[in-house]
Structures are given as C-alpha cells and as structure tokens.
Design brief:
By secondary structure, this protein is of the alpha/beta class. 28% of the residues lie in helices and 25% in strands. The strands form 6 sheets. An 8-stranded mixed sheet has the order 5-6-7-4-8-9-10-13, covered by helices on one side. A 5-stranded parallel sheet has the order 14-17-20-23-26. A 5-stranded parallel sheet has the order 15-18-21-24-27, with no helix packed on it.
C-alpha cells in the first residue's frame, strides 16, 4: 500500500509495534476507532487474527469504509452472509484476500479452462504443505485451505455437492494438523485438497486433469516454470486405455507480485466502484465449503469417540478428552466436557454444560444435572444425584 502511494496510517493492538511500523513507512500509528472516525480514509485493509475479521469488517462498513479483509472472511457462515448484505445495503466494497486469484499463473490457468483449451475438467489436486507457523486459534484447514478451495471453486465455477474429510491431530487437543478434503461436483468432477503444517518440505502445487491436457501450477518453481501444460493423451482404441505421454510445455507469464496486484485491485475498485474479483460473495462461497469440511472433521471425531466407548451415548456437541473411561449405558448431553484422566461409571446421566475432570471419579448410576462442575480430585460414590448448577471444587 505504501508503494502504491495510498497508505494513510497503520494500526495494531501492540502500540509500540504500530509506532515502529508507522515510522518505517512515514505514516502515523492510530487506533482502530480513530481510523473509523476519519472521513478522509476511504478503505481499510484488515489483517488480524481470523476471530476478529467479521466484527472489525462490520465496524468498518458501518463507518462508511470500503474493506479488504484477509481470509477467511469470517469463521461463521451466517455472519459472513450478513456482512455481504451489510456491504451491499450500504454501498460499500467488501473484498476478501484470496491472494492466488491475483497470481498471473492462476489467472492464465483460469482463462485456459474457461476457453476450453484443456478440455472438460476431470479432477483437481491442490497441496499446501510445509513445516511453518503452527497456530492455536484455528486448525490447518482454516489456516491453509481457503486459498486452495478458492482456486478450485474459481476454476469450476460451482459449489461442491459433497464434502468429505480425513484429519490428523497430533500436537494440540482438538486442533487438526493435517487435513485432506475431498470435493465432488456436478458432472462427475472431483477435487482433493491436502493441507499440513507438519510436512518436511514446502509444497504448493495445483494439478488440473483435463480431457485434452493436464496442467501443473507450482508456486514454488521459478517464473519460467510456474505453469506447465502436459498435452498427454489417453488412447482408448485398444482393449485397455493407454497413456501417451508428451513433453511439458511451459507457459510464458507476465511476472507480477500477487500481493501488490491484490492491493492495487482494491484501490482501483475504491476509485471506480467496480466489484472486486474476490468480493464478499466469493468469500462466502469459500466459507460455506470450509464450514462443511469443519463439520465433517467434528463428525469424524465424534465417530471415533463413539467407537471408543461401547454402548455410550455422547452428544455431538460434547467433548471427551483422552484418556478417559466411560461405563456402559452412560449418556453425556449437550456442551458438556469430560477432561483427561476421568472415570465415569455405568448408567450415569450427565446433563447439559457440565464440566468433569481432570482426575475425577464418578461411580455407577449417578445423575448429574445441567451446569454442574466436578473439579480435580472429586469422587462421587454410586447413585449420587447432583442438582442443577451445583459445584464441587478442590
């Protein structure tokens, strides 16, 4: 933004850091509220933690600003949809930072697909893996996959009819470190997206299988090799299909920094009032797919829990941390949380919003009603009844 000559000021919750960055670029460091109230500022770029995106974007739109917000637009589909409506009703621009839509290689590939140069798209693979920053406010799906989902949806111009996932959690309880998303679209088109922050080498590739040719977009390759077309053919004239390989053909691209192009596009849209290439509706479409994948991960986790505890009923909104023992016939209801090293006996009923553990022992046939807390070291004998909202502490 500074290189484009449009940077008015900077803001950060860390005041010292904001002052340092402001000094580096010759602009003042200001609070978010000061920026919202400044009528000379027309646009705001929000690059804060994902949990803050929707609330800060909403505040900016209501203050009459055009907004570019980093991915994801929100962590909640309903809130993202409301943001799109809010921007449209207030005649404000809402743009999402799906950076690869401004990459010359992706733009060229997208144009080739639309022109039919690769034939009917059959399959897409997209990998985004490496050994980098590991987050605790979001899992790797939300951290890495928005870019890949955005590209896949942009190439196919439709939303998936089916979303399946597999996920691995190794470092932090409840935060997936590796995720593979399988998407199915109309026309028997499929896509697979694999993201991981536990991968020994960096890999950022998108592979498109077309009826006429195949394409590889490798963002880590030199510019002359970032986009390669392979005009492989499948010969179906014999008893079995036969692959006829051809040499890859590098596509000549105009070199451009995607982030600069993205920022320039935002500025241009502010001036011309054109719809951003990655507007709020495009961000919402990506978010819907992310949300379906996230729910699939949670259902996968619940399935594992169900198979782990035989003849036990655990509501999908409840959590049971490992290791734990739960007896046959026990029911655990909405939003309750069983912490590690907890033992719950047979035929117990755990109501809504209960917290049990760690290192708690509950006997058989206990009835624990809503909002009860059983903290570390507590033991309940058999047949104990705990009324609503009672608290045992240590």
């Amino acid at each position: 933004m500074a290189e484009l000559g449009v940077l008015a000021c900077v803001s950060d919750i860390n005041i010292d850091h904001a002052a340092k960055m402001g000094a580096s670029y010759g602009v003042p460091a200001r609070s978010f509220d000061e920026i919202l109230n400044d009528q000379t500022i027309h646009g705001i770029a929000i690059a804060t933690p994902a949990t803050l995106h929707d609330s800060q974007a909403k505040a900016a739109i209501l203050a009459g600003k055009d907004v570019m917000v980093e991915k994801p637009l929100s962590l909640d589909v309903a809130m993202a949809s409301a943001l799109c409506d809010l921007a449209e009703n207030n005649n404000r621009l809402l743009m999402v930072g799906h950076l690869l839509h401004y990459h010359p290689a992706f733009l060229k590939l997208q144009a080739m697909v639309k022109a039919g140069e690769l034939g009917t798209v059959r399959h897409i693979y997209s990998n985004r893996m490496g050994l980098g920053k590991i987050r605790n406010e979001e899992n790797v799906l939300w951290s890495f996959a928005p870019h890949d989902i955005s590209m896949v949806l942009g190439l196919l111009d439709q939303e998936p009819v089916r979303v399946d996932v597999s996920a691995g959690t190794y470092l932090q309880q409840g935060i997936a470190d590796t995720v593979t998303v399988s998407l199915e679209f109309l026309g028997n088109v499929q896509a697979q997206i694999m993201v991981s922050w536990l991968h020994p080498v960096k890999d950022q590739r998108l592979i498109l299988i077309g009826e006429k040719a195949m394409a590889v977009f490798d963002d880590l390759a030199p510019w002359e090799n970032k986009l390669t077309i392979y005009p492989h053919m499948i010969n179906n004239s014999g008893p079995v299909p036969l692959a006829e390989k051809a040499e890859g053909q590098a596509v000549i691209l105009d070199q451009a920094e995607p982030l600069r192009a993205e920022c320039a596009h935002f500025v241009d849209c502010i001036v011309t009032r054109a719809k951003p290439r990655t507007d709020g509706r495009e961000g919402l479409r990506v978010l819907k797919t992310l949300d379906r994948a996230e729910r699939a991960i949670k259902n996968l986790s619940k399935s594992k829990e169900a198979s782990m505890f035989k003849d036990v009923s655990i509501h999908e909104s409840a959590y049971v941390d490992q290791p734990a023992i739960i007896g046959k016939g026990t029911k655990i209801w909405h939003f309750s949380h069983v912490l590690p090293n907890t033992v719950i006996g047979q035929d117990c009923v755990i109501g809504q919003n209960c917290v049990i553990g760690p290192h708690v022992h509950v006997g058989d046939r206990c009835k624990i009603q809503n909002n009860v807390s059983l903290y570390k070291g507590v033991t309940l004998e058999d047949g104990v009844f705990c009324g609503p909202s009672c608290v045992f502490t240590n």
